[in-house]
Amino acid sequence: MKTLPEKFIERMRAELKDGFPAFLACYNEAPVRGLRVNTLRIDPEAFARVSPWELEPTGKLPEGFIVRGAENVGRHPYHAAGLFYMQEPSAMSAIAAAPVDDSGMKVLDMCAAPGGKSGGVAARMKGKGILVSNEIVPKRALQLSYNLERLGVTNAAVISAKPEDIARELTGFFDVVLVDAPCSGEGMFRKDDTAIAEWSPEHVKACALRQSLILESAEKCLAPGGALVYSTCTFSHEENEGVIEDFLNKHRDFSVEHMERLYPHTSCGEGHFVCRMRRESVRPQASFEGFEPPRDRKLLPLVGSFVNDTLNNELPDGIVFRSWDTLRLVPKDMPAAVMKLRPYSVGTELIELKKNRYEPTHGFFMAALGQDYLRELEFEPDDPAIAAFLSGNTVPCPEDWRGWSAVSVRAGEEAFPVGFGKAVDGVMKNHIPKGLYIN
After folding, report:
1. Vertex 183: Cα angle to 180 and 188 (nearest 5)
2. Among 64, 208, 319, 343, whose CB has the most other CB atoms within 10 angstroms?
3. Topology alike, domains 6-279 and 375-439
4. What is the pLDDT of residue 248?
5. Residue 54, Cβ neighbours under 10 Å: how many?
6. Which residue blocks in 184-288 are alpha helix, DSSP H?
7. 129: nearest Cα among 108, 103, 98
8. How far apart are CA 10 and CA 289, in angstroms?
């Protein structure tokens, strides 16, 4: 059994009373692994039919499952294709609590890395509306950007800003703000010895102070009638109900709509806390300037050539925006203010400009934009060729193919891109970014 901090044990014994023996006993058990099907790509029933692993519903989300007997999950072609995201089951409760749909909402994930909750929210938005996903640590923001790209999210901006800076630039913009706050991580004890080593009563108090400060910024970002969802993966009253009580005392125009605690001995997962609050006051709706298309008229014909060379259909509506040497497709409602907040990605990266020519990007082929490719090379998931391609190698293709092509893995009756290449003389040259190779 893990050696847990004595003061933590004392607190949990007093809190859980008769439930404490069962809580303590669960630390003799292995952590529960979860998988959330990415419904931007595939519906849960279809994925369950092709899954190479045993799945059991979590009961938290229709697309959420417990995974049994899964090894090397991140190396499977279905993972590279963004068909699922590995997510701790009880953490899915924050996605379930967020009142998000495909009606064109504006959503902020204030503490988003590595991207599990942003990805879950984006799937429910179905490419509609605006998602701004923030991570203040640059390295984690980059990983967040990669994960949302893999999942096919097209309506997001990934930024790396302080909460107070977001509040200043995007005051009153969002219909829903999600704060999955940095915490003392007591819900990580069963699977992370570092969380145990770093725990102390002083650390709990420091986390509670930081969480309250983040909520103060989150509140400023919320539009009239908006919902503020707060969650942690810890059990302490100070970081959960205590933070909520303090916030409600300061903001009388908010009320609690939903609150729940999950423990590892009473739910499937490691434990979580989630609370949804609603702003009841009415104040003027904020308005923001949007992105403007590039003034260089030579760029739009390049986009037309790109579409004609790679697709049988048209791109969806949006603003074509130039960012350095790339062209991006940005949703029309995306506020230009995100460019002041250390953006890592905005919308969908389409093409990279190289003098008077272009090259498509990995992000374009991974985007869930409803593309109908002129050329798509498909492989079964157990075909050695797909493993070879994901590790950076060339693969054979039809001799008469010329040009940019999607490379996809089959899952049942459909195929999903894992990357792209260029077909030349019967060979598909690999264009997956080297940092994404799976060896």
Report:
1. 95
2. 64
3. no
4. 98
5. 11
6. 193-198, 201-221, 241-250
7. 103
8. 53
Domain residue extents for the chain = 6-279, 288-372, 375-439
Distance CA 12, CA 234 (A): 12
pLDDT at 185 over 90: yes
For residues 227 and 224, what is the distance between their CA atoms, to the nearest angstrom? 9
Smallest Cα–Cα separation from 405: which of 433, 386, 429? 429
The position carrying tokens 């104040």 is 283
Give dist(CA 179, CA 196) in Å, integer: 23
List the one residue out of 79, 66, 45, 151 whose CA is nearest residue 413: 45
CB–CB of 159/134 below 8 Å?
yes
In the residue annotation, 183 being an active-site residue is answered as no
42-60 residue pLDDT tens? 999 999 999 999 999 998 8
Q: In this structure, are residues 178 and 119 in contact, taking their beta carbons and an 8 Å threshold? A: no
**Structural contact between residues 128 and 103, judged by C-beta atoms closer than 8 angstroms:** yes
Mean pLDDT of the region 194-209? 96
Q: How far apart are CA 24 and CA 12, in angstroms?
A: 9
What values do phi and psi take at 396, rounded to 5? -70, 155
Selection from 221, 326, 238 nearest residue 7 by Cα: 238
The predicted pLDDT at position 2 comes to 82
111, 183, 207, 233: which is the annotated catalytic residue? Answer: 233
The secondary structure of 231-253 as a DSSP string is EES---TTTTHHHHHHHHHH-TT
- Answer yes or no: CATH 3.30.420.40 is held by domain 6-279: no
Q: What is the CATH number of domain 375-439?
A: 2.30.130.60
Whole-angstrom distance, CA of residue 421 vs CA of residue 408: 11
The SS3 call for residue 435 is helix
